[in-house]
Automatic annotation (TrEMBL):
Gene3D superfamilies: P-loop containing nucleotide triphosphate hydrolases (3.40.50.300)
Native organism: Campylobacter upsaliensis
Keyword set, alphabetical order: Coiled coil
Parts forming coiled coils: 161-293
PANTHER family: ABC TRANSPORTER ABCH.3
Protein name: Protein CR006 P-loop domain-containing protein
Lineage: Bacteria, Pseudomonadati, Campylobacterota, Epsilonproteobacteria, Campylobacterales
Pfam families (UniProt xref): AAA_13
Domain Protein CR006 P-loop: 17-548
Length: 564
């Protein structure tokens, strides 16, 4: 319902029970809910007929024409005589159970048999049959549990339990009375009338059955019934909070009026800003261009040895450019490999970090996040990418960014970023991200000495290469880093050490190794990009020769055998 419609109501059902709302709604929303079985009333016709039988008000006695009839009537103990007759006389015993003399003669026995004749026995049988019928009808009354229906009636329904128990109690009392009549036929008895208690229970059962019918009907129309409940709930909820809502509407109208005034003022300010921005755009056209970014990206591609394609400005006015191949003017992006696309995207990202995407974008300090840029690149570019990031972001002091986050799984790439004896080492913080058994991540700070102690990790790269796990392009730079760490530790000069190796190398087969190790520059421009330039086996031979020359061959063998 609409709020306005509910608020206009002066009266609403105040007997609404929110818990009952919730219960009914959950039932209708339960897709596994099934219809309830109907509940039947309990018939009391059999009980009523027996309870009205006149035999219970009848004095059942023996044959009054019998010789002993006057004596039995005078003593008024016919039932006692019958009990004795059944227990002793019919057992063919002549001994009296009291005086223990043989006084039970055939003649006396015949007197008793004549007194308790067929008419008497017929009456007794009739009462016994009535007793059996009454008890059978009692047994046929269903157990109380058979009446239980989920969400309608259960063992918590005290009223139903009381009415059911009243019937049971009265019927049990009547059964006792009938059995007393059998035991004492001459005694008049009056059975309890059960009409009223049956009527009370059946009236209650009718109410339950009506609820079952309504429940099943709701299941047949679940969606409509849910809508009705929702409507009733919101009517109740809105009406309950009528004063609050009215206050809210009043406040809302006041605020909307205030907002209209602000919107008008805001439009005036925006119009002024737009005029200023238009002026800035016009002036920026003369000072902003994309040629510098294009030139830098093309130079990076050349330094990486990629000459098969380059970036070309297509529309200087719109500041658009394309990737094209040598001798072609059409875009070639779709023909690039995935690695080439990744490389171009990263080079573009680096330029974007240094510049801005739109002409009218305001210069602000950036927070830069680089996530494993070498993950899909050839090993040829791992070292180069690390050097490029260092040149652009880490070695310069005048960058226009607040922070830079670099994430990587690649140990070699990480070590190249950290560097050795880099001036920026004190400005960086290193962290390890670990996932524990509970699939949550922990971030641990790596101390500076912990980073330097990862010297063993470089040795692991050499061993991984021996197991064909690492590309050969990484090996020369790893060897150089190991020697720089080790020579620094034993305080030996790298240049002098390598020169001595060169002097001993009469065949000049270690020349490439010595030249590479002695190269002081770690810049992006000055590194080999193709393993065709080197023989890795000779590099390993020369690398081992250095430790042998220094008198630390044992250290070399220990590290290469996994003893680190």
């Amino acid at each position: 319902p609409k709020i306005e419609e509910v608020l206009s109501l002066n009266v609403i059902n105040q007997n609404t029970n929110l818990e009952e709302f919730k219960k009914q709604y959950n039932i209708l929303s339960d897709t596994t809910q099934v219809k309830l079985e109907n509940i039947n009333e309990i018939s009391n016709i059999e009980f009523k007929n027996i309870e009205n039988n006149l035999i219970f008000n009848e004095i059942i006695v023996g044959n009054q024409d019998s010789v002993i009839a006057d004596l039995v009537n005078k003593l008024g103990n016919g039932d006692w005589v019958k009990d004795g007759f059944n227990k002793y006389i019919l057992q063919d015993s002549q001994t009296c159970p009291f005086c223990q003399k043989d006084t039970i003669t055939p003649e006396f026995k015949s007197y008793l048999e004549n007194y308790f004749d067929k008419t008497y026995e017929s009456k007794i049988k009739e009462v016994k049959k009535i007793n059996d019928d009454y008890q059978n009808s009692f047994s046929n009354i269903p157990n109380i549990e058979t009446f239980y229906r989920k969400d309608i009636v259960d063992d918590k329904d005290l009223e139903f339990e009381k009415l059911y128990s009243q019937i049971k109690s009265k019927l049990e009392e009547n059964i006792k009375k009938i059995q007393e009549k059998i035991k004492e036929p001459s005694r008049k008895i009056e059975l309890e009338k059960t009409d009223e208690v049956f009527q009370n229970l059946n009236d209650y059962i009718k109410q339950i059955q009506q609820k079952i019918i309504e429940f099943n009907s709701k299941l047949d129309n679940q969606e409509n019934e849910k809508e009705k409940l929702e409507k009733q709930f919101w009517e109740f909820a809105i009406f309950e909070k009528k004063e609050i809502i009215e206050k809210y509407k009043q406040d809302k109208n006041e605020k909307e009026k205030y907002k209209q005034d602000l919107d008008k003022e805001n439009k005036t300010i925006k119009d002024n800003i737009q005029n200023i921005e238009n002026t800035i755009k016009e002036k920026q056209k003369g000072v902003i261009n994309i040629q510098e970014a294009v030139d830098k990206m093309n130079n990076y591609l050349k330094d990486l040895g990629i000459l098969s394609f380059y970036i070309k400005i297509q529309d200087d006015e719109k500041q658009e450019y394309i990737i094209t191949r040598e001798g072609e003017d059409k875009p070639s992006f779709k023909t690039l490999s995935e690695g080439e696309k990744t490389l171009i995207s990263f080079l573009y990202f680096l330029q974007l970090c240094q510049g801005k995407k739109e002409k009218n974008e305001i210069n602000t300090d950036k927070i830069i996040v680089i996530d494993d840029p070498i993950s899909s690149l050839s090993f040829n570019y791992v070292y180069n990418m690390a050097q490029l990031i260092k040149e652009i972001f880490l070695r310069k002091k005048d960058n226009n960014y607040e922070q830079i986050f670099i994430l990587t799984h690649h140990l070699y790439f990480f070590k190249e970023l950290i560097g050795y004896k880099e001036a920026y080492i004190g400005d960086i913080d290193a962290f390890r991200i670990r996932r524990n058994k509970n699939y949550t991540s922990n971030i641990d700070t790596m101390q500076k000495d912990e980073i330097l102690n990862d010297y063993q990790a470089y040795w692991q790269i050499l061993k991984d290469y021996k197991e064909d796990k690492i590309h050969a392009i990484l090996i020369p730079n790893v060897m150089r880093n190991i020697l720089e760490y080790f020579l620094g530790f034993i305080q030996r000069d790298k240049i002098d050490t390598i020169k001595q190796i060169e002097n001993e190398d009469k065949e000049k087969k270690f020349e490439a190794f010595c030249r590479y190790i002695n190269r002081e520059s770690h810049s992006f421009m000055g590194n080999m990009s193709d393993t065709k330039e080197i023989n890795i086996d000779i590099f390993f031979e020369a690398f081992k020769k250095v430790f042998e020359h220094l008198g630390h061959l044992e250290h070399y063998e220990k590290m290469m055998k996994g003893g680190n």
